[in-house]
Amino acid sequence: MSAPRARLLPLYAAGFVTAFGAHSIAASLAGYTGSKHESLLTLGLLLAVYDGAEVLLKPVFGALSDRVGARSVLLGGLAAFTVASTVFVLVGDPSLVGFARFGQGAAAAAFSPAAGAMVARLIPATGHGRAFGSYGAWKGLGYTLGPVLGGVLVALGGYPLLFGGLAVLAGVVAVWASIAVPAVEVLPKTRQTVLDLARRLTGGSFLRPTAALAGATAALAVGVGFLPVVGARQGLGPLATGAVVSLLAATAALVQPRAGRARDHGRLRDRTGMTAGLLLAAAGIAAAVVVPGVAGVVTAAVIIGAGTGLVTPLGFAHLAATSPPERIGQTMGAAELGRELGDAGGPLLVGALATTATVTTGMLGAAVALAVVAFLVAADASRARSRSS
User: Fold this and answer.
1) Cβ–Cβ under 8 Å, residues 139 and 15
2) Are 43 and 30 in contact (CB under 8 A)?
């Protein structure tokens, strides 16, 4: 194994931890609320608290990593994730699961953007596409395995075993990262005013890839949440719909490194690829309700996975290439906030339209929204080319 890859593997594993931690618990919360006779509102709050902590804190920790060093924030976040999981096991009170999830989410808000910043700093710009593609693939693996392995752990030993397993996982990755990931120097910074920050975060070089990443994450969330609904209407059982979701996640995981490698070799332009990926994801969501039968659901899973897998490494590589190196943590934290908003906004849009009309209307509405984002990314790219000419 090459030295650069050995340094990156713990960072990829950190991405796996945040994805696996989020989905392994979320997938089993319905059983928790059912056994405790809690309301659907309680379930919704428990599902939202992890992402809510990330939305609030990712920009904060991203900026902190620029100030004190991304490695310190990475290790601190992994340690905090271990502590939050361990405390829940030691206390032994299942009613505190919401507090434990908030602690895990706050910890993930620290080490997730720090890991992205470290990937950008440790790898030359010519390898950013492949590096971020691999990072996204590991996160996709966490999304895929989380519900399955989380359910197995809960079935064998309840929530204490699941949280104990997460504590061990995060602790092992923290030790691994402390050994294998080198420190990167904190770069000197020019003075930045609030106006300077606002100008940078509203410029096309930031908004374009962030909007694309948010759209891709929204498409992924819609696929994970609503393809089982559409599949159930086609007569598929829980096992089959679970396999469809796994197919979506696996496709995204397989596409990301390949898209990143094509980008690094000059075969794929960032903005062209992001536009194409968003249009693919939109087509996949539409196919779920337009193409009849089980074939529509399976086709949708593959196309959505391919679209999101195309956008993600290109978006992060573009951000890394256009961000000031001394502000890379701040950039990644703010971009991760955009992804979290897409993660919440996509299912909310489909759910709202499905409530007032039908699931078909909701899915088509999401497809149209993604197509609009793709158009804006492409139009911005055209304006950029015109200015350079």
Assistant:
1) yes
2) yes
Does residue 306 contact residue 201 with C-beta atoms inside 8 Å? no
Write out pLDDT tens, residues 90-142: 988 877 888 998 999 999 999 999 999 999 989 888 899 999 999 988 988 88
Half-sphere exposure of residue 4: CA atoms within 13 angstroms, side-chain side:
10
Q: Is the pLDDT of residue 305 over 80?
A: yes
276 versus 124: which is more confidently predicted?
A: 276
Q: Rounded to 5, what percent of the chain is helix, strand, coil?
A: 90, 0, 10
Q: Is the pTM of this model over 0.70?
A: yes
* Spatial CA neighbour of 40 closest among 49, 29, 50: 29
Say how far apart CA 255 and CA 224 lie, in whole Å: 17
Question: pLDDT tens digit string along 63-84?
Answer: 899 889 999 999 999 999 999 9
Domains delineated in the chain: 1-181 (1.20.1250.20), 192-389 (1.20.1250.20)
Q: How many CB atoms neighbour CB 3 within 10 A?
A: 9
Question: Which H/E stretch holds residue 283?
Answer: helix 270-290
To the nearest whole number, what is the mean pLDDT of the chain?
Answer: 86
Written as one string, the DSSP assignment of 239-258 is HHHHHHHHHHHHHHHHHHHH
Two tokens, residue 328: 């890379």
Per-residue model confidence as pLDDT tens digits over 351-378: 889 888 888 999 999 999 999 999 999 8
Q: What is the DSSP letter of 31?
A: H
What is the rounded distance in angstroms from the CA atom of residue 53 to the CA atom of residue 47?
11
Q: What is the pLDDT of residue 1?
A: 45
What number of other Cβ atoms are within 10 A of residue 312's Cβ?
31
- Here the tokens at position 259 are 């898209």
Task: Kindly tell me if the per-residue pLDDT of 171 is higher than 50.
Answer: yes
Contact 114, 73 (CB under 8 A): yes
* First CA to last CA distance, the chain: 44
Question: Which 3 state secondary structure label does DSSP give 197?
Answer: helix
